[in-house]
Structure formats: structure tokens, C-alpha cells
Amino acid sequence: MISLKLSDAHILGAIMSYLLGFFIMPFVIYFAKKNNLVDKPNERKIHHGPIARLGGIAIWASVMLTFLLLVVLSYYPYGKLLSGILLGSSLMFLLGLIDDIYTLNAKFKLMIQLAIASIVYFLGINVDCIYNPFGAPIHLGIVVSYIVTVLWIVGISNALNFIDGVDGLAGSIVTISAVTLGLTAVAMTPTNAISALIAFILAGSMLAFLTYNFHPAKIFMGDSGSLFAGFLLATLSITGVMKSAALTMFVPFFILSVPIIDITFSSLRRIAKGVSPFTPDAEHLHHKLLHRGLSQNQTVLVLTSIATASGAIASFIVGASLKFFMYAVLVSVIMLVLSFLASKNKE
User: Which of 24, 107, 253, 308 has the least C-beta neighbours within 10 A?
Assistant: First the structure.
């Protein structure tokens, strides 16, 4: 039986999840189109023609199957908080999948998201202290810790859903964020290799999705994919970085800067108008760039460049800047190739 070291599993996990996602995605596209589970154009959406919207199935399946295959290879990433991450992300995926198929009420979705975040909080995934530049770390009471943790998980999960409006954008942001989280989790003291492993597996799965999602997209990730990926990024940032009582606990704000900025301004704008923060509109960051005359690919390039620059700052803070540069170049080249191939294979 093959035995894997954790560092080997990081690399192999990313490759395995990419290959699994790459081969699963066409079956999901076929199933979605056959059963009319497609996203149709409207006044808020910029795509033309119906597009399969169940990409989250392939993303979730490739991540979970990779774990099973790692077990077969006699490696299992044991970790205190692993059960909460896998359970919570799967529940969030299921919620998104039901919404993709039946279109749930926004308030009902929010209630279920709060319940899922509460479950993982009590499974140990929580922010329990905050860095204090003037002295000892500030330890949060259970009530404040619960509020901060739940707001972070639900907020980031929905932030990824908010930016999923341009071909290749959400997938690119998730890929860059996952790679950065993986590198920072390894560079932290103490190292959190479990969080890094999950992050790299997510990055591999998302690259497979991007193979079919760059403009012109053949499939969208849907709420099932965006909520699943957003939940993973939120919880991995807690277990991999925020558990530190040092200044580095604020690193996730750099890593996830693009979705955080978008959801913050979107929510404030809607509240100022007297409507719910979850009321959809066409005034997100990507919409504003499109209105200024940028193409979909140019919009993705601008926002992913910001995400990459923010990731570089985060990596510099934790001392992983050289590794980040190498990985960022590799991932950027892969995404550019996928985008170029997609543009040359318009249906």
C-alpha cells in the first residue's frame, strides 16, 4: 500500500481533484441540459442562451472523491476540525443545489445558512480571540465569538455568490484565494497542513470548473458551487490563519479582498435604498466594469489581478512571498491558457 506524506498529498490532491472535475463536468452539463436545469438570460444577466447551472455538483464531487482516493492511498488527513469543514460544506452545497433546482426564498436560505454556520461553530470552528497590538490577545466570550464566526462564514459564503456574474470570475477568485490560503496555512506558526490540503484540493477542482466556465461558458457553478466554495474559504481561513492570536489573523481580509469589498458595498447600497441586502441588482463590481466598456475577459483580468496583488500582500505578511510568486505565475498561466482555449472553441 502506498503511503503519502502530507506535502505529497497537497500536490497529488490538487492534481486528482482537477482530473476528477475535468471528467465529471461534461456529464453534469449533459444532465442539466437534458433536464432543463439551465440559467436563462434576463435583464440582470449578460449571457446569451441557456447555460447549465449545476457546476457545483462536479466541484463538490471532485473535492469529496479526492478525499476518498487519498484514504485508498493509505493517507487520511486526520484533524480536529475536519469533520466540521466537510459536514458544513456538504450541507451548504446541498442547500445551494436545492436552490438551483427549486429557487428558494432568500430569507429561508439565510436561516438555513445561519443554522449550518452554528453547527460548525459548535464543532470547534470559531474565532475565539483577536490580536491586540497593545498587549495580550483579546479573548472573546462565547456570545461574541459565535456572532463573529457566524457572520464571517455566512458573509463570505454569500460574497462568492454575489460575484458569480461573469464567465470565469468566481472560479478565478476562488482558485487564487484557495492557493493563497493553502500557502499561508503552511507558512503559519504553528503550521496547519490540514487546512492547506483542503485548500489545494479546492483549487484543483476549481481549475477543472474553469476549463468549462471561461467565456463563452458551457456551465455555471450555481448556488451549489458558490456556497460550497465560499463556505470552504471562510472556514479554512479560520482554521488555517485566524486561529492565530498574532497580527496575521487579519490576513484573510487581504486574501478575500475582492468578494469582501463587493458584498460590503452591495449590502450598504441596498440598505441605503431601503431594500434587503439580498435583493439582486446589476450594480456589482463586475457590472460597473462592464458598464465602462470592458469585456468579460477584461473584467475577470482586472478583478483577478487585484485578488493576486492582495494575495501577494498576505503571503508577504506570513513570509511565504517567494512560494506565492511561483504558484501565482503557474496558476495564472494555466488560467490564461484555459481562457484562450475557451475563446477558440466557441460553440
Answer: 107
